[in-house]
Each structure stands twice: as structure tokens, then as C-alpha cells.
Design brief:
With 141 residues, the chain is of the alpha+beta class. It has one domain. Helix content is 35%, strand content 21%. It has 5 helices and 4 strands, in the order H-H-E-E-H-H-E-E-H. The chain has a 4-stranded antiparallel β-sheet, covered by helices on one side. Strand 3 and strand 4 form a beta hairpin.
């Protein structure tokens, strides 16, 4: 994994996948690759408003059907660490190529309440979305 491989993958994502998730742009961030000094890289893809999250209106669907599989694919199959950080306030998402996803037990997404006003089984309050499948996700890691 090199700086250029991360930046190329970020560029490819913005160039060829906007049709799937919505408008996106490249951003810079300081990334720490294993065994190297932190370096400023153009390897962050900012999805301005994720179509999938907007259409599903569901924290669990975003996590179980997009975030986890995408992180797993790039990190495990491609060997390019990727962390996805959905923003449930503005429905944007940040894809950080070169940053390994946090361990499931440390990922703050699992404390995210659901969109109770859009979910038949969700309730307003601080409880995590009932559709977050943490047991299955923990077993698959």
C-alpha cells in the first residue's frame, strides 16, 4: 500500500461511483500508514449526501449493507485500509482510504440512535438503532 495507490483509489471512486451514492469530492487528510510518518494525502472521498442513506433512512441498513461490507472489501480483499464515517445529521459520508476501520467494539456507529421518525421499530431516545447487527458483525471480523 502506497500513497499513490490510496489516492488513485479515492480518485477512481469519485470519478466512477457518484451515480451510485451521489455527488462527491476529494479531500486531503493527514494519514498514518503503518511504519511511516503521517503524510498529507488526497485520499478522502466526501459523499455530500448519500443517496443510499437518504433513501433508506436507516442507520442499520447504512451500517450493515454499506459501511461494513465496503470497509471489509477494501481492507481485506484489496489490502487498502478504508474507514467509512457516515454523518447521520446531514446524510453525508466520509471514506478515508489509508485509515484502518476501528475495531467493532470501538466504532461509535454502534451507539447511533435510529431515525425514529422514519422507522417502524425505532423509538426516540438515546438507545442504539435496533437494526444494528452487532453480534453478527463481531463474529465476521
Amino acid at each position: 500500500m502506497t500513497k499513490s495507490s490510496l489516492e488513485i483509489n479515492a480518485w477512481i471512486t469519485t470519478a466512477f461511483f457518484a451515480w451510485l451514492v451521489g455527488p462527491m469530492k476529494l479531500e486531503r487528510k493527514e494519514i498514518s500508514l503503518p511504519g511511516q510518518e503521517p503524510e498529507d494525502m488526497l485520499s478522502v472521498v466526501k459523499i455530500e449526501k448519500c443517496r443510499y442513506l437518504q433513501a433508506s433512512g436507516c442507520v442499520g441498513m447504512c451500517t450493515n449493507m454499506c459501511k461494513l461490507p465496503t470497509q471489509r472489501f477494501f481492507t481485506d480483499e484489496f489490502g487498502l485500509p478504508l474507514t467509512m464515517n457516515p454523518n447521520f445529521e446531514d446524510l453525508s459520508c466520509e471514506m478515508i482510504f489509508g485509515q484502518a476501520p476501528p475495531p467493532i467494539e470501538e466504532d461509535k456507529i454502534y451507539t447511533q440512535p435510529c431515525f425514529a421518525n422514519q422507522c417502524a421499530i425505532g423509538e426516540p431516545g438515546p438507545e442504539p438503532c435496533p437494526k444494528l447487527d452487532t453480534d453478527r458483525a463481531k463474529k465476521q471480523r
